[in-house]
Cilia- and flagella-associated protein 206
Amino acid sequence: MPRHKTLVSIGHRVMKRFNQLDLRVNKEFVIYMVHLLARDRRKGLLKYDLNKPTACAIEGFVNTIVDSYVNAKDCTMANMKMAWVMKQGVTIDLEYVKKQYEEKFQTELQLLIKDILQYPETCSKLQLDQLFAKMQVFIVACYNLGSPKNHVLLKLTAQALNSVIGRSDLQNYVLKKKYHRLEYLQRLSATVGGIVIYNNDGPDGDRENVRSVVNDLEMAQKNTEAAFAASMERAVKMQSICQAAMDDLINIDHKDETLTYRVPLEHLDRLNQFAATYFMLHRCLTTLNEHYQKTVYLIEVEHKRYQCVICKIDDTLSMRTAIDSELIFPHFVYLSQVWGNLNNYLNHIVELNKLREQVEALVVDDLMTLTKATIAELQALHKRIKKPKVCSFEERMDAVKELQTDGNFCTLNKADIKEFCSLAMTITNGLLMPAQVTRKLCSNVDITFGFRDPRYARFAELRFEPFIAAFRKVVFNNADLALLFKLDDALIEQELQDLIIEPPKQTDFECQTEMVVTNDLSPANWINVTWNAWDYHRETIHLANIRKKQTNDAQTNISYGRRNAQNQTYNCRQHK
């Protein structure tokens, strides 16, 4: 469609401008920006016909996108970048982090594994010593016990390795097939790694040289929880400041069904953008914190397993002096597995912190100062304007009738809108006021609306159709609200679905007779197959002639030439 072609051409122009500014911007993010901002009531192209847009409108829109991107204080762009970080942040998933770290780790270990497996069957004493040293490095690296360059750690690993495999066993090891060597190496590293972990567990362990993943996790959890708490507290504080200021600048009377304000709503929208940004920040941090809490629970479970296997090994060693390896070694292997799981959880916490830092960096500290300055400016303007403006709810809902949107109302069931007063958003063009009660106004669609007061909800129920129509236009024509309520994907999908690819006027048609393609072309079946199309035409005419000569008599093979054939018996002709 022309509209889609217009947005594609705008995306190319935006990319060109970014290249001129030496900015490396993801092409997919540019498409995301263009399609979403084109629908925005303030910055978009809703006032123009996208089928035939003017050159000035397109140039102004391109400039708006570029200026917003380079401006760190632009709230809409900050919201968009936060949403994009959360969409692209695949490391939020624990299983993905496990898989990625494991693949990277195995790739790095392949060189060392190949070096260990290369030793011939006829190894000299020097070569066996080198093999023994490389095994130590492999065990330390495989289970992240510390730095492979630490000679003290290597010495501790050598002692544990000596207790499992002796010189004669090492000579037998090189006599194995390569795939048997690799399997044995992995079992050996798990056993020796568990021994090193057990020997250095507790307060008597060598913490200067041997790493303790348990202590690392405790420190990581402490720092992560403090960082999340500080960021979320700051976001909640700024949300409250913005909402309190907006509550002072407007007055909603549910009895008279009127909205009273002095500062124009266009100015209040500036403050609302700051509120939306801090709400967006809080929701992103909440999502990350939820995944973090799930990982914390898994850490607690795994830590209990760790303590359990340590106690089991203690009990086993305290009862005997000489212990069969088959009795104790499986516990060390299990201890290594638990240690590896704890390492994976630590990696996930690290990745979650990286995402948190990316999100926090998008909301700069200067934005807080700018928010407070905007509040002071609007409060001063409120005092200067003596005569307030009074509008009815109906007038405010009629004011958005001219806006056009094809956003699907049913997608609101996926949006978390119950935190804000839906009626206040509808009559103020999207101001985010806190909700106290929730209602489900639609019996056939599971959408929970928020309202400041039950009487607000009553008004929405009585005037359901105009309320829903106005609410839909307000939300879907505001990029900040679409991002906050996670409706951006639904809007962009709707836009991209409008693209209809026209089929070409001429195409090359290649066909083959079904009999030739599907039939068995073995020599026994070649009787019904021909490569000459005219043979099929002649066969068709022949069958048509036979069809014309067919009679309509009620005659079957059984009753041919006979009457009441089902009741008669005929003796077969006897051949002599």
